[in-house]
Every structure is written in structure tokens, then in C-alpha cells.
Fold these 4 entries.
Entry 1:
Amino acid sequence: MSKTETPEQTDAAARMSTAPAEEEAGAPPALGVIGWTRWFWRQLTSMRVALILLFLLSLGSVPGSLIPQNSVDETKVRAFKEANPTLGPLYEKLQLFDVYTSVWFSAIYILLFVSLIGCIVPRAWQFAGQLRGLPPGAPKRLTRLPAYATWRTEATPDEVREAALTLLKKHRFRARTAGDAVAAEKGYLREAGNLLFHVALIVMLVAFACGQLFKSEGGKLIVEGDGFANTLTQYDDFRSGSLFSLEDLSHFSFVLDQFSGTYEPDGPQRGTPRTFEAAVTYSEKGGPDKKGVIRVNEPLEVDGAKVYLLEHGYAPVVTVRDGRGRVVHKGAVPLLPLDSNVTSTGVLKVMDGYRDGKGRKDMLGFPLRFVPTYAEDAQNRMFSQFPALAYPVLLTSAYHGDLRVDSGVPQNVYQLDTSKMTQFKDAKGEPLKKKLLPGETMQLPGGAGSITFEKEIKEWASFQISQQPANGWALAGAVAAIAGLVGSLFIQRRRVWVRAVEGEDGVTVLEMAALGRSESAKVPEELADLAAALHSVAPTAPEAEPAEPDVDVERDGK
């Protein structure tokens, strides 16, 4: 209690609180299972511990954002371990590569969940009691409350109380007549907002847990003209929650009809992407074909799944012929972009059906480098100076031998293992290498065949197909949390009393007072507005004129 706070104010403010009553400090609980369990439960369900756990949960999410996660990209995790031989094993023991499924993160998560429920249940029970109750009667001395007004009126006490009751109800107060005063209360939504905020946090925690347990997420690179059916074998990479079942995969398919991108043609922002669009034809659950366009941050929603557009690149169409002139490969080769101007690199592997000039079975490998708009630096190294197809050039060399596809070691489709291969040489004995324009061909020495850069150049796009069953609940929880927080911060619980009694001279004495849960300038202002409105109904009584004194005047001679 502050120095300026009276016992009446303290008692009235305490009765307005809906927080669980705190027990008086006493001796610590006796040793024993029951005693320590009660003590632990009180600590766990306190608001202080809930805030600490919420802070720890936020803090624990930081490593998940800064350190590569197995659930997102295992390749980056392996690269991190190779680059950091000391930190890698330490992070592995601390489960920092699997933060959101780690034991310590799950423990914080579960404790916060239990703590919030333990906070909410008693508060909700007491708040329900407050809603069922009536505003308390007026304190004996209203003059001690922080906001106070009084005047005398010719209206009778009953008329004043009736007018006050009507006025307060009109201003959405819960009001009743209690003795010689009208008691009113307002601002219940403050505690309702507080409870809503905590319930919304629980909803968000449950939604987050369901999203992690039942989610599925995979990636697929598709060349123009090719399609995708939502089955496990179609994915380039796939991740899912521990409770996800393959039967939960959405039933749909789509074909990438065309990818189009536009770029800033000149100026300081030359080459900056302006639009990326993937025109697709899709069908849901075997239904009729539909047309759609997928843009960045504008996914295609189909059968509960969302298809996001992630990246794009070029896929030159290449034809490879063997020593007898027979076509052993013809198709688009997706290449990975290296920079913002889409300088791209990749590999073409010919594993089956190829025979060299002597009719012997062999394998071919072609490292490829592609630029959509050709340029060279001072060292005659080619690069792209614009991302659109203005002057496309394909640089290739050639190897033959064992591609080691049967070695049992997983291979990157964009890299070529040349440990068991031999590079073709030109007539001068130099490694065979040539820059090809669309329509040009590079002949392999010794009648080993050829590779042709066709005039057709396709584009590819990579998509992320995601199923997050609890996203709607998470969004609803976030909106509800914000609404509850706004209510708990800006709505003030306050009480108003209006007392009307007959004075000794028969004139009614009217008193008004207000009390809020915290110091606020709005409480006196609100009381002033109410007093002005009530004053128009029960105006101030005129001051009684003083009686003239009796004066005896003595007249001369009479």
C-alpha cells in the first residue's frame, strides 16, 4: 500500500482483482512428496514462471534459425559438419541440428503448455464468479476515493438514484441500487482479454505441435512441358512429421505449361526481376483440368496443399548421338543458376545405349555451362550479363568411361565423378571444349559421336509442395492473442458509486466517486462526464438567502 492510498482504496482495489489469491507467506512446506508436489505446482502455474518459459521458448528458437536443420536441408548440415569439425560433434550432442524435436525444446514446450493451463483455469473460474456477482456497495466515505464530486440538489434521493441508475446503464455499466447509493461496475473485458490472450497462446502451441507432427513438405524441379503427381516417388526431396502418413497426401497433379520472367531492361536496376509466373494446368482428385498461375508468395492451393514457386532456371535441349549416328539422348537438361544473371552449370550423363566408334559400350559425361546473355571477362571466361535469353551460349567438354553409377555411393546429378573417366582430346592434344550457339554441334574425336545444342531452350521452375494442417488454427490464435492483449492493456476495470441522502435542511446531498484498478486520468474524466450528465437531471440547488436581522431603530422624540 502506498503512502497516499487509504485502507478503503486498498480493500476496494483488492476486491476488483480476478487473479488467484496469493497465500500469506508462512513456513515452507514440510518435506514429503505431497508437499513438494504442491510447491512445484504453485511455482509452475505462476505467471512469472509462464513468462520465463515463454522467453526460454523464444530463446531456444534462435539456434533453429541460425544453425542448419536436418528437417530443412540435410546437405547443409553435412556441409556445416565438414567445415566445422570441432563444433559439429558438440552441436550434434546438444541436438542443435534438430532443435524443434530436441528433448530440451520439447521439455520447455510441454512445461509452458502446462503452466498456461494452470494459470488459466483458476483465473477463468474466478472471472466467472465475478460475472455472476453484483457490483459491491458504496464505501462508507466516498471522499477518500481518488475521483470524487458532490453537490446539493432539490431532487429527492429516490429521483437522484433512479436517474443515476438509468444514466449508468446507458453508459454500459452493470448497475444496481444498494442502500442509499447506486453501485456500478465496468471493464470486465479487461480480464476477458487477459484470458483470451492466454487461451490463444495455448491454441498457437497446439497448432504448432500439430503442424510439426502432421506436416509434409517436399520439393520438385519441373521443366516446361513436364508434370508432377503428388506421390512420394515424384519428389526430389521429401520431409514429414513423425505422425504423418502417406495416405494423408493430397490427391492432385499439375503440368508446368510455361514459365515466364521479366526483368528491368536498363538503368541502375538493370536485370532486377520484375515478375516470375508459372502457368500450370492442374486437376484435383481426378477431376477436370483447371488453369492456374503460381507466383512468388502467391501459391496454388489445391486439396489442402499449397504449391509455392521457389526458383527458376534454364534447361537447354541437347541431342547426343553415338558413333553410328544413332540418337542416344535428346531432351532438356536443367542447369543450376550460379548468380543473379543466371549463369548456369550442370552435367549431362549418358549411361545406357551408347556405343563408341568401334561399337563398344561406354558411358559419356558432359560438363555444361550456360549463359543466357553471353559476355567474357579479361581471362576469356564467359559469364552472363543479363538474365533473359538475349545471346545464349552453351560451353561443353566431354568425358567417357565409368560414371560410377553402380558404386553404391549416392551421386549429385549436377556433378560429374571423373575419377574413372577420360576426357576427350582435340587434334592438338588439348582437352576437347567448345562454345556452342543454338543449332551448333560438337563432334567427338575418333568417330565417337556428337553433341548438339538445339535451338529450343526451355525453362524450369522448382516448387515446394507443403501441407500444414494447423495453419488456420495458428493464424486464428495469433489474431485472438493480439485482440486479447489489446483488451487487457487498454480496457480499464473501474467502479462508480452515486449516493443521495437528505441533508439536515431537507436538501438532497449528492455524492459521486470512482475507483479504477490502476492510476489513470480517464477515471476522473469519466466521472466528470457522468457528473455533468447527472447534473442536467438533478441540478445544483440555489443557495438559501440569509435572513435579514431584526434591528430596533430608536427615533428621536418618539
Entry 2:
Amino acid sequence: MSGMRGGGGGGGRRGGGRVSSGDARAQRAENASAPVIHNLLSRIGGLFTPYRRPLTLTIILVIVSAALSVIPPLLTQRVFDDALFPRGQEPDLRLLAILVGLMAAVFVSSALLGVWQTWLTATVGNKVMGALRVKLFSHLQSMELSFFTRTKTGVIQSRLQNDVGGVANVLTNTISSVLGNTVTVIAAFAAMVLLNWQLTIVAVILMPVLVIAQRRVGQVRARIAGKTQESLSDMTAITQEALSVSGILLSKSFTRQSAETARYSDENQNQVNLQVRLEMSGQWFFAMVNIFLSSIPAIVYLVAGFLLNNGAADVTAGTIVAFTTVQARLMFPLLGLMRVALDLQTSSALFARIFEYLDLRPAISDRRDALAVPATSAASGRVEFDQVSFRYPDMATDARPTLDDVSFTIEPGQFAAFVGPSGAGKTTVSYLIPRFYEASAGRVLFAGIDVRDLIQNSLVSHIGIVSQETYLFHATIAENLRYAKPDATLEELETAARAANIHDTIASFPERYDTVVGERGYRLSGGEKQRIAIARVLLKDPEVLILDEATSALDAISERVVQAALDTASRGRTTIAIAHRLSTILAADVIFVVDAGRIVERGSHTELLERGGIYARLYSEQVTTS
């Protein structure tokens, strides 16, 4: 991946043990272990590009508000020197009223502009954050299947929720804070110099020291923030694994609830410790800054006394009051800029984690000249493997390939079955046809065209898949069915359900097609879930139907009902069955026997029995044990 080094898609925690802020060499090593994204600041700025108009208005409001904030101290000098204590004269109440009125007008204007500015920054910031989350989600949708098989779901969820949420404050407040504080600092500094340049030197002499200290604190906070997000990823993964329906069933089945609680508790304690460290990091720094800022007015009074004692004519009571007021206008925006800089340094680890995922490139993507599957063709529904070999991406280079020099042709409308021992490579065949994985060598052809030359969405739209592990959403039966065809009418749903032998069962439910199936369909039996999955595929009406051990997890009665539905579903379309139970594929036009990644036998059920090979042995074993 260009522009990035460090970890890939996995969820392992980066970083080592505790590193003190004074150990620069160890700190650099710690930072080097995190993902490094080139041009990170420019890429963060690019997120705001679609919102130029509201940003421009925000910038104008920020500049105006910052400029207005310097006016009251200057008016204060006039109030003291010209209105309240004019030299040798009585207080000028008319001038005092005018000046006080101007100050009130400035305060009201600043407040109104502040409300408007806050609404704009909150709107833009949250829109950017929302767009970033959708962009990340959409990008993950394009990733190949192997990415999800090697990455915990909880880790992916953490990137979408915790990491994007963690940068919300930066996205919402950074621009207005940086601009506002910068303009305020410049204006206040200019005002201080105009009031008295000697006092200005006293007020700002220690600023460089604070900036250097702030940078060191920011490095420590960024490291701790990265570890905190990794810990959140682990907690999310534990929650997703342990509190899903499958996880709860597993922990209860093995009485491991206390162990799961202990696992979560350990990671939670780690998270607590990291959050405390994150909160405390930099507190001594800001305590010193606050002491410094609070002490400056007293130092100014002391220096002003020396200046007055030496006959300085430009140091008046109004000058001192105005100067200390302006000094506060300078110091607190400087403190704000330091906090923003710390936030940016802290959030850089989160942005790096987000862009790390955005920089992932799908291993499988459409070519620029990719074609749609022809609507009508003599080869429609034909599936061919031409000397196909395949090994999974995470396999050792010297390991035996999952598929090795596999060739076959399934003609349109044929019922083909793949059988063989577990791990022989049968399911891998079903992954290569819709191009969920890319063949390592050879060609996979669909309708006579290499699948690498086809638009993948077009390819998949012509293929229906019914797997052993049926996935249903926590939604109604109708919503689960319409996942295949969003605009399907109730009549179409019922037609598909009847073909799948599930309509009568649905009709017996009090809420019929509006029945909520529960998470992963756990309110339904295995046979009912499988038949709903078949009905969903029938709504799609694909040319090619892939059945990946669709009945192997069912009891004998459910299997017969589901098999009848599958027989209906396979009529008139090319059907490819990955079978464990050979009784389900006796009527197949052709049976391919796969062993150790190679097709070792092929033929009809009768032909294979007569040969007395692997198929005959498998069939004999199943008949004997049934």
C-alpha cells in the first residue's frame, strides 16, 4: 500500500511498554510502530473540500469575532484615562456612556456571531465526520472476501465507530479554533505593542519554552491515544464475539461465562488505565501554563512600577488595566492553540488508523474495459474452469495449493455436483465462480468469458448462492426476502415462498410476512431459515445456482423438505451443488469428485459406482452409517 507502512488489516495491538516522555529514542521507536500516512494534514484538510461555502463564511465570522474581541480592552483604556480619570478634570459622563455603549454593542455582536459560528462549525464538522464514516464503510464494502476472513468484525466496527468518533472534536472545532485564536493572538499582540512595548516583552518572553514543552507532551498523548483506540478495538471485538447469539450459546454450552467476563474485565481495566493516563498526560504542563498566565499580571504591575519610578510618561492606570486585559486576550488564545495542537497530535494516530483502512486496495477489482454479462447468449449459464490453480493469500508459499490444475465444463441447465473429503477444495470452487477470490493460475469462465473481464456486480447478479450457514437480518421475513429484490410485491414474495415450501409456515405465524426473525434468524428452525434463504434466491432468479452444502446441517425431515425446495429452485437453471450428503445429488447430470485439490473422478452416480473409486467408497460409507 502506497503512502503507508505498518500493519495491514489485522487487529493486533501495536506498540510496546510504557515509554517516558524524556526518552526520545524510545519515543521515536514507539511512533514508528504506528501506521505512517504521508501528507496526513493535507488529507485531513481535503475532507472539508465539499464544504467550501460554509467554511468561507465560518472563516469570515471567526476573523470578525476575533477582531471584535480586542476592541473592549482598547475601549477600557479610554474609559480609565479619558472618561473616569481625565487628568485634572471631572469624570466625563457623556464620553463614559458612549464608551460603555460601544463595549456593550461589541459584546452583543460577539455573542450573536459566536452562536452563528458554532452552528456552522458544528454542522460542517459533523457532516465531514458522517461523510468520512460512510466513505470508510463504502470502501470496506469493496474489499475482497479474504480481508474479512482475516480481520475481526469488532476491529472493523471500532474503526467505524470509535476512531471516527474520536476525531469528531477535531473535525468540528479545529478550523474555527485555529483561525479565531490566531487572529486574536495577532491582534492582541499588536495592541500590546501599541500600548507598551516593554511590558509586551515581559509578557511573551517564556512563550517559546511553553511551545517546546507542548510538543513533547503531544507526542506522549498521541502514543497513549493510539493504544487507547487499539484497546477499544479489542473490547469491541470481545463484545461482538461473546454477546452475539452464537457466542452466548457457545459460552453457556461450555459454562465459560465467567471466563468471558474475566476476559472482558481484563481489557476493560487496560482501557481504564489508558484513559486515566490520557487524561493525566499534559496536566502538569497545563498547570504550569496556568500558573504562568496567572502570574503575568502581577509581573506586569511590578515592571510598570519600575517604569513609573523611572519617569515613564506612557504608563498610565488605563494603560496598565488595558494591557493586562489584552494580555489575557493573548495568552488564553495561545493556550487554546496549544490545546488544539495537542488535540491534533493526539488525533493523528486516529486519523492514521482511518486512512490506513482507506488506503487498503481491494485485491479484486474491475478492469477499466470490463464487460457486463451478455443478456442473451448461447453460453448463458455455462461455467468453465480451464487449468485453474488457487492458493489462499495467507498460505505458505511451499504449501500444497487448495486447487491444482482443475478443469471442467458445466453446460447451461446442467445439474453438477462436487463431492469429496473435507478440505478437498469443493467450497473453494464455489468462491471462484462469482470471483470472491481470484484464481492463482488458469481461467474461470462464465458464459464463455473470463470472469476477470466481467464487471463483478454484473457477474454476481447472474449467480444465486445458498450456503450451509444461512444469514438472516434481525428484521421481518418480508424485509429479508426483499434483500434480493427491494421492489418485490407481496404477491412475488408469496410466489417465491411457495416455491421454497415455506409459505404455509409463514402464513401460520400471527404476523405472517411481518414476523421478525430475530438476530441471524434464531427465532426460526434451521429448515425454516434455509427455505427462506432459498425463497430469497428465487426472487433474484439467477441463471446459475450454487448450493454449498445447503442441507448438511439439517435433520432428515427438514432435509427432505428443503431438498424438495432446492429441486424446484434448480429447474431451468445451471445448478452447482457442493455436497456432503451424497443422497442429495444422486440425480446430478455430472458429479465431480475432488481430492487434495484435484478432480480425480467425474461422471454420473451410476458410472462412478461402477468404477469403484473414491465416490463408490464414500457412498458405501454413508449408506452403511445411515
Entry 3:
Amino acid sequence: MTELISPRRDLPRGAVLGADDLVEAAGHPVGGGLVEPDYDPRLTNEDLAPLKKQSWGSYNIFAFWMSDVHSVGGYVTAGSLFALGLASWQVLVALLAGITIVYFFCNLVAKPSQVTGVPYPVICRSVFGVLGANIPAIIRGLIAVAWYGIQTFLASAALDVVLIKLFPSLAPYAVVEDYGFAGLSALGWGSFLTLWIVQACVFWRGMESIRRFIDFCGPAVYVVMFLLCGYLISQAGWSAIDLNLGSVTYTGLDAIPVMLGAIALVVSYFSGPMLNFGDFSRYGKSFAAVKKGNLLGLPVNFLVFSLLVVITASLTLPVYGELITDPVETVARIDSTFAIVLGALTFTVATIGINIVANFISPAFDFSNVSPQRISWRAGGMIAAVGSVLITPWNLYNNPDVIHYTLETLGAFIGPLFGILIADYYLVRRQKVIVDDLFTMSERGAYWYRKGYNPAAVIATVVGAAVAVIPVLVKSAPGMHTAAQYSWFIGCGLGLAVYYVLATRTALAVRVGDGSAEPVSVG
């Protein structure tokens, strides 16, 4: 059970809130936070304050994960696992194990934000300090900027297919060598900037518009995926389905390291949205609704999607004479302009969906947390959008080796942040949060630590990230290539262990509370 001080000043100190009271007190779309008179403006705006009303049900969380999974990036990542040289059942076991780990960890990180009604960077104030929370916020924000650019690029590639099919005269402008700048073709730039603007417009309309958008995106991709799969089956026949996309080269005990690597890759792929899932769980009606949505959206949904991916990809071999693991390219081979346009546009919309929920909203909150009075939620999102162009994301995700390197590097920095948050909330503070102290600069506040920073959390972050990133940087050294696959787990484990020791057994031990207020139980 989580204990917290009520953010509602109309209730007396020590009052006991029930679940219905919390829903009434806690949050709605962005800008719907309850700003108390004594909240410090240097830490507060309506986007960061505890929500007045929480209205998301299980389906909204389920749709969030569908939007996160059903993208070109998700398709390519799932398909790549079936080409590792494992038998199909081994890959499915690895996929299920990886996504179950993600499900378990998402539930852990969801609870503190759902109960308090505050986003990820604000709940981090209880761990890193009211000023130190900017450290994880900036790290997560910069990572989201990179992913935002990558996903926009993948979606723009699908749009390129549509444009060339409808207007064949544009084909020469898709050649980087003839019409290119900074590694992207002229047509690619046009598609990228078009989708960049579209996403910004959806984001600008606010959280409720985003919720309605993602409620549509995930199911839409399922419709197209089933249609595409049905079309290929009609061309090749049921007997052509083969769940092994490549030759099986690992059997018995030799397959275990490869399976473990596949599990690690799944966790790394979801490590970003998993870390800041509190940005979304804060809108949940109840923690039970969030958990149910996670169950449907992660283990159940991801397994069904992965099966669809491998069946569709395996049928490209008998139909087109080669294995195609990119859904956009598969759609482009169909002899129907309507089918190509429908399929490519659907994958484009789906990728926009994951981009907004996973990589636009996070930096919006993260950058706003740095200077709440100067940077609103919308301004934070636009900072991320501009940064996503400057990093030329097409150079970060242009081949399998670069994909794995990118995931491993990001995992090394995200892992410690996750481990520290979990260690503090569940092991050190025993699920106790003083909400009002998240918004005060008073030195008597529970989260002031040392000048607003918690040295234990900062040290644990540095140690965890530094150790985890070493194998990624020196993959050519003996044993380092294998260790690099587990950068997220290394960082998470080290961050959790180092923080727990520093926070409970050293001179840096944290205060669980200032003793001046009675915590109130929230059902």
C-alpha cells in the first residue's frame, strides 16, 4: 500500500482518502494539474502538478502499448529475432520472456506516478532531490529526442513509398547520391519534414487528442496486418507458412546465449517508454486498470503481433523470391495502388502514434521540469522536435549493427535510472511519498537532501552508466560483445545495488520523511 500526503488543501491533515477521492483529486489532460498556493513556482506548473482527475481505463493503456508495438520499428525488431539462427519455438520463448520482464517492470514504475498523479520527472524528485531530478529528466529527454527522430525517419520511409507509387516521376529524387543532403534524399527530406509537422500538430492539441489518436492507431495496424497476411496466404497457400525466417544454426545448450541475447534486445527496445511510463500511468483511473492494460498490451498483444510479423515475412519468400522483413517494402510489392497506399499510410500513422506517445510526451515533461515557468509542456515537446532533426536520425538506424549499437548505448544510460527509482520507492521509502514536498524548495522538505540534490542517486547513476557502457564501447574485446547485449540489465542492477547501499548504510543515507506530517493511506 502506498502512503502519501494529500495534495488537496481542502482536506485536513491526517485525513484518509479512498480510491474515489484520489480519482476526484488527481488529474486530467496536460494542464489539468492542481497547483497549491504554497507550491514553489520554480518547481511547478499545471502540467507537472498532481492531476485533478484520472480518467484513463484499461483500454487506453492497452491502446498505448499497441501504438508502441505496432510500428515499422517494432515490425523490423521482432522480425530480426526470427533470423538469429534459432528455431521458431525458441524465438517465441525469448519474445515471451522478454515482454513479460517488460510487463513486470512497467507495473513497478507505474505505481508511484499513478498513485500521486505526477509525471516521471516529478516522481524522480523523491529520489534525486527537487533539483537533482533534472539529471534523469535530461538524460531521458535526450534519449527520447534520438528515438523521436528515428521513428519519424522510419515513418517517412513509408510515406516515400506512397509518393513514388502515386507520382513515379519523384523516384529520381529518392536517390541520395543524386539529390541528397546530410545523408537523406530530397524526397526523404520532404517526407520527414511533412511528418514532423503533422506530429507537432497532433501533439499541440493536447493529451486528450493524443489519447483518441492512439486509441485508433494500434487497431488500424492490426487490420492492415491481417489483410496483408491474408493476401500473401492467398498467393502462396497455407503450406508456405514457415516460422523460421533463417536457417536454424543453434540447438541445445548453444541456443541459450542467443535466446538470452534476444530477451535482452526486447527489454532494450522497450526500455525508453518503460522508464517514463509514469507519464501515462498517472492518468489511470486505478492501479488495477493500469495493470490490466499492461497485461493486454504487452504479453498478449506483443506475442500476437510477433506471430503476424513472422508469418507475413516468411510468405514473402515464396511470393517474391526473397525474404523481406520490412513491412513497407512488402506492401510496395503488391500489384495494387490502393493496397500500397492504404498499407503504407497505415504504417505511417502507426509510427506517428508510437512516436508521439513514447518520444514526444516524455521530453515534453522532462524539459518542462528543468524550468517549469519558462518551459511549458508544449514548449518542451517542440524543443525535442527541433533536436530530432539536428541529430540526423537516419544515420542512427540504417543497418542492423547500428540498430543494436544504438539500443545497447541507450540501455546503458536508461538502466541505472530505472534501478534507482525502483530501489528508492520500494526498498528505501517503502512506497511512502510526501506529495507536497515534491514541490517545495524548503530545506526542511523531505526531498531537499543536499542543496536540492541526492548524492547517493547521482553517484549510483554515474557508476551504473559508466560500467554498463564500457562493453558497448569496446565490443571487439574478448567477451565484451556478449556483455554489451545486457547493458540495460547491468546498468539497472548496479544502479539499484549501489543506490540501496549508499541510501541505507552510509553517511549519504536518505530521510524517509521529515516527521512533521502524518502520512495518509490511499486505497
Entry 4:
Amino acid sequence: MTAYQDDIDAIEALKQETGSSWDAINPESVARMRAQNRFRTGLQIAQYTADIMRKDMAEYDADSSVYTQSLGVWHGFIGQQKLISIKKHLKTTNKRYLYLSGWMVAALRSEFGPLPDQSMHEKTAVPALIEELYTFLRQADARELDLLFSQLDAARAAGDETSIELIQTQIDNYETHVVPIIADIDAGFGNPEATYLLAKKMIEAGACALQIENQVSDEKQCGHQDGKVTVPHEDFIAKINAVRYAFLELGIDNGVIVSRTDSLGAGLTQKLAVSRAPGDLGDQYNSFLDVEEIPESGLSDGDVVIKRDGKLVRPKRLPSNLFQFRAGTGEERCVLDSITSLQNGADLLWIETEKPHIAQIAGMMNAVRKVIPNAKLVYNNSPSFNWTTSFRQQTYDAFVEAGKDVSAYDRSKLMGVEYDDTELAQVADENIRTFQRDSSAQAGIFHHLITLPTYHTAALSTDDLAKGYFADQGMLAYVKGVQRREIREGVATVKHQNMAGSDIGDNHKEYFAGDSALKAGGENNTMNQF
């Protein structure tokens, strides 16, 4: 027996118990509606997707070639279309997630309008987007199952037993569009209690994985901007604990915490760490400070000093009242941050880097893995990187090291189109193509994501349409660039009424009102042209 048939039988039995007042209720229609609404709460989604992530993490530990991927999305429809496309082209959503980017929430979802990525947007916008994404993914399930139900009805009407069996099998083994979301909670939007309260809302909306970073909450900056300020480990651990308590309170015992360190690009700290004994965590954090040795007689009013190796030293304090770290300590701090987070409740790491360089990433992860062998990384394949220039320069340097002639290339101008067909560019492009596979094998990257790709694709596709439509191409710009491609490439949105739920609504009307239902999908519906 399948869940679908079990529901039919259960409703039939209930109908018999209830009596004639339920004569109009069709048990199979109820079973269909239940199949189309598999997930009834966000917590059900959070548990289902947490189980998926934990399984995927274990499989990656056994085989680094089975890494996972996601694209950042900023609207439910964009997330829905991404998963529909994955199922269409790749036949399964296995190992594919969604990423919710705080950057895109700030830039696209705030009531204030576009904002920089500095935790200035409404914190409620984050759980609202999670809920919206899962609403659209569940609607994708409902739509796709509705198409199968219609095909089943047609096969039954035709007496086609082979098709009936095939379609019923597809219904019974249906793969949902609902996948894990890794959701950005920034630096926690306040103190640990604020982090806990927001984490609960995000989990209740369906998030199984929350990514939190070690910046000062009220000084938070985008990971690819200057001016980042980190917090001592004890402060950050308190927020990791807050997120874990939120998961446990809501019963998602295997919820995933992604601990992000911005220390590679963060040269500042807001405060000194508390140290209770030489070599403890606070002492290690303070050891990276840029200091100057002073005699006790040289102290001035308001000076802050610490004792290091038996001597008094004064941490260098900026006019902003922030303290700075020694230059060149970023990688060491990232390693310490990562080890500390994993030892204090985090499940996955995120090291924000300034370029996509496998050797750099692997160097830090190898140091972490000496202490925690199964440490795994979530890595931002960031649009803030100039991938073309970076990989062409890496390839140029490799050519030089190998003794190859590079006289035809100017390393400072490798972005130029004149290099596109050269051997160097082809090698660089191949290294870009295999970057995710290679770095997952060499640098412990479990999950690859692009934070804000759909921000760029929305702008690019709009630019393509606008430049033709408002010029001499007129409607041909839309027909040739959009509609004709949708039809020929099988993009479901060409039937936009169906995508928006019109056919589902028609079928529900028929459930509710039978032959007297007024339906939108008749012969005069222009969608029949497609």
C-alpha cells in the first residue's frame, strides 16, 4: 500500500462512518490534496531537511566527490524556478539546496529600499523570506502532482492500463521540490537573546541550517568590504549556544549551525577578550593584537594595557576606539576561530576569503583538520570575486613556475577579450569549471554556494530585454529572446496561468462543486496556444 492509497482508504472509512452528509466528498480528491500538501508546518520542513543535510554530511565524509551545492535566491518564485529547472534537467534534487543571502535581503527585501549588507534591514524579513520560499516550493509540488493527477484521469478514461500503472508509480514515488535552506542570520542582529529569538522564527519558518558570523552585530559589514570588526570567541560562542538552544527547544535536535569567520579580512576588534590564565582562549585572541611595549611610567590617562610574557604592552587603539590586529595574522585567526567554533557546538565552517584560491583554502582547512579531522566547509563562490582575472593570473603564475613562455601575456590585463581564445584562458576556464570538484577533494568543502547570483541574472536578463524592446526590435525582442526560448526549451513559465495555480484551482472547484464548477481552463483560455 502507498500513502496515496492509504489516504483514499482512510477517508472512505471516515466517510462511511459520517453518513450521507459526506456523500459529495470524494476520498481520492482528499488524497490528492493531502499529497499536494505534504508539509503542513515549517517545523516539519525543518526536520525533513535537517535529516537530508545530516545524511549528505555523512556521505561527504565517506566520499568528498559527493559535495552539495546551492544558489542564493531572493524571492520565492526564483527559488521555485531554480528547483523546477533542477528537476527538469538533472531529474533529482539530491545534493542541491537553497541559500538565503542576507546581502540580497538587505538589497532587495527591505521596506527601507536597497540597503548595504550591514544588518540594517528588518530582521523579520529573513524568516518571512524562508516562509515565502517554502510556500513556493510546496506550490511547485502541488502543480506538478496536479499535472500527474490529470494525466491519471485521462489514462483511466482511455482505459490505458500501462499508462495508469506508470503514472501511479510516479505519484507514489514523487520527489518533492522542498530542499534544505542554509539561511544567513548575519551576526545575530543583537545580543544572544536577540539571536535566539530570531533563530526560533527562522526555524519555525522551515530553516534547518543557520549561518552566523563572528562580526560585531552593530558594526556588521559585508564579508567582501573593508571595516569588518570581530568579537572575542566567548561572545561568539554565546550566540552559537543561542542558536542551538533554539533548535533544541523546537525539537530539531539535528539542526545545523554554520559558523562563519570573517577574520581573514577583519583587522579590527571592538574589545579585548577576557583572559583568566596564560594560553586560554582569551589570551590567544589577544595575542594577535598589534601592541607596543611601554614602561609603567609611560602610561597615560585612559590607556588600556595587557600583560604579555611578563611585560606590559599597550594595544594600538584607533580614533574609532577599536583595537587593531597585527597585519598578516588573518589566516591564523581563521584557523583558531574555526577550531573553537567546532569545539563549541558548530557543525560546519565558513571561511570568507578574498579570492577563490584552492591552496589558500586548503592551507587553513588542513590546519583545522589536524585538530578536527572531519571539519567541513561551506564556501562562498562569490560574485565579488573577479573569477576570470583571478584564475587567469593563477594560470599565468603556474605557467611561469613551469617554465612556459608567457611573453604574449600582460598579467595586469588578462581580463581583456583578446586573451579569450588563448591557451592560458582555456586552461583558466577549465580550472574554473572544476573548481568546486577540486576544492571539495583538496580543501574539505562540503557545500558550494553562490551568494547572490540571481541578483545578477535578474539584472542581466532585464538588460537583454530592455535594450531590444525599447529600441528597434520591439516585440521581437520578447518573442525571440524570451517566449520562443521558453517554448522550445520546455520552460514551464510559458504557461504562466498554470504556473500561478489556475489549473489547480479549476480542479479544486470541480472537487467542491462538481459539474457546476465555473472553470478558467476552457477552450477560450489563451494558454491553450502553448
